[in-house]
Specification:
The protein contains 5 helices and no strands. The chain has 105 residues and is mainly alpha-helical.
Amino acid sequence: NGWQDGEYYDMSLQLYESAALVSYLNTDIGLMQQYLEILFENAKCFEDKLHGYLVMIQSMLSSEKQGEAMRHIISILEELGESFSIDVNPKDAYAEVVSTKSLLC
C-alpha cells in the first residue's frame, strides 16, 4: 500500500491530487470525490490535504455552491490559525476572496 510505505507516500499523495484535479476538469465530480475521499483518509497531516481542499472548493464554486465553499474556506483558514467572527456573511467573505485573488494575479 503506497499510503503506508513512507517511500511511496509522496507519490501516492501527488497521484491522488492529480487524479482528483483531472476528474474535476473532466466534469466527473463523482470520481473526483472518490479520489479526494481516499486522499483525505490517508493524508498524514493537514498540509497534505490542502491541494485536495483546493480542488474540492473549485468544484463547489463552479457548481454554484458558494456558501458551502465559503464554509470550507473559513474552516481551512481557522485550521491554519486565522480567526473569524461567527457573524461572517458568506457573500462578504466571497467578495474578499475575489478581491484578494485579483491582487495576487
